[in-house]
Design brief:
- The chain contains nine helices and 15 strands.
- It has 317 residues and is an alpha/beta fold.
- It has two domains: 2-120 and 286-316, Medium-chain alcohol dehydrogenases, catalytic domain (Quinone Oxidoreductase, Chain A, domain 1), CATH 3.90.180.10; 139-255, NAD(P)-binding Rossmann-like Domain (Rossmann fold, 3-Layer(aba) Sandwich).
- Strand 14, helix 9 and strand 15 (313-316) form a beta-alpha-beta unit.
- Helix 2 packs across helix 3 and helix 2 crosses helix 8 (265-280).
């Protein structure tokens, strides 16, 4: 089979495309023919050598994709054969075929195509987890999302809006701010300058921060007894935080890892069905993904690293 791979860590120049062995399916696995593969910043960090990556020679990046089951292991229900599925935490995904443990299979209803599933998959499940496990805000609370036009930010905003919350946010460019406003977000502020911060300070019950570097400013946006849901460092490591000042204002920081919640086939089924229900009801509209051929993976990595994308970036075998 063909795959996107590398033999040493580095820039996108280390990426190669060519023939590698087909995965050998174990008893409790299925073989999936990928139709679309999600490209995420975590894949860039793995390529650079700053994130853990599955030991394999050559290295094959990617953990998320959607396609159809073309082979089942001896311990797997044969009725799964031919089923369209999504997976979000399976290594070696940047290839034509990938072996997926049965417990990590997310079966797709007829109204969710493999393209749609790959577009919403990991970011959608992350947004659902942030909104319903960590945030848990009740309407009509005011909440704020940093990087609101990013993959998680767009989906999180729409879930929170559908749940009846008043959503505000920040984004880096006028085009990205326009995307958020068209979704129904109340106001979107520039994320690279903060002249607006004093007027918004103390206004929000929850701030969802996936940027990291401006965590102190997110705390400033909170009401007393408010909380920051900290879920990423897209902009860099967070600054040191004065816990005594937080204590004085009864503010808190919540963190969480999706993989501590997405722990079984049943959890994947429950959470994906909740996410897909927003799509079925027309409450989530997705920006059309940018699709690159898997053979053009180097260009796709460069595009994602440039920050030009607004929606999801997909690779297509």
């Amino acid at each position: 089979m063909q795959a996107l791979y590398f033999t040493e860590f580095g820039t996108s120049d280390v990426l190669q495309y060519g023939e590698v062995p087909l995965p050998q399916v174990q008893a409790n696995e299925v073989l999936v023919k990928n139709e679309y593969i999600g490209l995420n910043f975590a894949d860039i960090y793995r390529r650079r050598g700053t994130y853990q990556i599955e030991e394999h020679y050559p290295y094959i990046d990617g953990y998320e994709g959607a396609g159809s089951i073309v082979q089942v292991g001896s311990a797997v229900d044969p009725q799964l054969l031919g089923q369209n599925i999504l997976y979000v935490d399976v290594p070696l995904a940047n290839a034509e075929y990938v072996a997926v443990p049965e417990t990590k299979v997310i079966t797709l209803p007829a109204y969710i195509s493999t393209k749609l599933a790959a577009t919403i998959g990991l970011q959608g499940l992350t947004a659902d987890f942030l909104a319903h496990d960590l945030g848990s805000d009740q309407a009509p609370a005011q909440v704020f999302i940093t990087g609101i036009s990013g993959g998680v930010g767009q989906l999180l905003a729409q879930i929170l809006l559908a749940d009846g919350l008043q959503v505000f946010g920040s984004a880096s460019t006028a085009a990205k701010r326009s995307v958020a406003l068209k979704m129904g977000v109340r106001e979107v502020f520039p994320s690279r300058e903060f002249s607006w911060l004093p007027q918004q300070s103390g206004k929000f019950q929850t701030v969802y921060d996936g940027v990291g570097v401006n965590l102190d400013k997110s705390l400033q946006l909170l009401q007393h007894r408010g909380r920051v849901v900290f879920f990423g460092m897209a902009g860099g490591n967070p600054p040191q935080i004065d816990l005594v000042q937080m204590l004085a204002e009864s503010k808190s920081i919540l963190t969480g890892d999706l993989w501590d919640y997405l722990t079984s086939f049943a959890e994947r089924k429950r959470r994906s069905e909740r996410l897909f229900s927003y799509l079925r009801q027309g409450k989530i509209q997705l920006t059309e993904p940018k699709i690159f051929a898997l053979s053009a993976g180097k260009t796709a990595h460069q595009y994602l690293e440039s920050g030009k994308n607004i929606g999801k970036v997909l690779l297509q075998p």
